[in-house]
Amino acid sequence: MKSTVKCLKEWNATIEALGHGKQTILIRTYRTSLKEFLLYPTVSYALKDDYLKSFQEKHRPFVEEHSIPHKEGDKTEIKYFATLEEIIERPPRRLPPEDFYIWTKDHVRSYLNGRKAYIWVLRVHRLKQPYMAEPTPGAIIYANLKEEVPLEGEPVITDREFSETLEKLK
Question: Which of the four, 27, 31, 70, 149, has the lowest number of CB atoms within 10 Å?
Fold first, then answer.
């Protein structure tokens, strides 16, 4: 059985969108060599008064509901892991349509700031057993947990849905 200590830190609402099959991609300004990782939820964006403006209007109720991760004391619940299936490079003017993600196109363009987009196509799985992670001080993008977490769980979308999404992205 595979396991990992590697985590990608991301806004909780985005992780929940991945976990609910509302999106299968992350848009980044960098590549990664990680092929599989846990999705570690953060809250930093939810501390801003206008954070909902970064998300498409139709997704704002979902974002509000999922803006804060579940915590027990200092520990944060990790519910999902992802396998990186592909990275697609695109100039910022050729972003995928908004139906592939919950953010606004303006938010994505602002994040990219004219840089090339690396579209991480992820196959997301719900962990068989959620994991309560201790804080990872100093980690901004990636984090390493103190113990291995088994990568066991079911994909959040079907093989057919995933294949169709991948075809539309290309």
Answer: 31
Within 10 angstroms of residue 140's Cβ, the number of other Cβ atoms is 9
Q: What is the pLDDT of residues 85-133, one digit of tens each?
A: 999 999 999 999 999 999 999 999 999 999 999 999 999 999 999 999 9
DSSP state of 95: P
Q: Using the structure block, give the residue that is written with the tokens 């991760």.
A: 69
**Domain count within the chain:** 1
Q: Which residue has the tokens 């490079």?
A: 89
Give Cα 54 distance to the centre of its chain.
15
- The answer to whether position 110 is within a domain reads no
Give the DSSP letter string of 2-13. Answer: -EEEEEEEEEHH
Retrieve residue 3's tokens. Answer: 């396991």
Rounded-to-integer distance, Cα 86 and Cα 118, Å: 10
How many residues are given for the chain?
A: 170
